[in-house]
Specification:
143 residues, alpha+beta, Thiol Ester Dehydrase, Chain A, six-stranded antiparallel sheet, 38% strand
């Protein structure tokens, strides 16, 4: 991951309000919540970009990485940026940047990457990324 990530390289973001339960005994957002932020962003990305049908298209997470740069504190909203890249025949990556506002300036709290593999749940095996999904991603991301 790159802490010098350019936010304008992302075409998608979603806002997530922090909840009191996100805070740990140290007074900041617990590290485990960042994977939930990624999950929420993935859901909305797939819904808005692909009009995803979860009954037809499933993927599993093969790997997850988070680089924590700054703590998040309650109350606040986080903005989660997401983009798809590293498109293979069966796998792809989502890249993330989690930001917050401090004194009117957007700061990056964390960056991340998850690697997904398309999966047929009924047959319990990996499958190729459907061509319509690939085309939607390429068009939306400009790749």
């Amino acid at each position: 991951m790159n802490k010098n990530i350019e936010l304008d390289s992302f075409n998608f973001h979603t806002i997530i309000p922090l909840r009191w339960k996100d805070i740990d005994q140290f007074g900041h957002v617990n590290n485990s919540n960042y994977l939930t932020f990624f999950e929420v962003a993935r859901f909305y990305y797939c819904k808005e970009v692909n009009h995803w049908d979860w009954d037809l298209n499933q993927f599993i997470i093969a790997q997850a990485e988070v680089e924590y740069l700054r703590p998040l504190f309650f109350p606040n909203d986080v903005k989660v940026y997401l983009k798809v890249a590293d498109l293979g025949t069966k796998s792809f990556a989502f890249y993330y940047a989690v930001t917050f506002l401090k004194n009117g300036i957007e700061k990056i709290a964390a960056t991340g990457k998850t690697t997904q593999v398309m999966y047929d749940v009924k047959q319990q095996k990996t499958i190729e990324i459907p061509s319509n999904i690939l085309e939607q991603w390429k068009q939306f991301e400009g790749i």
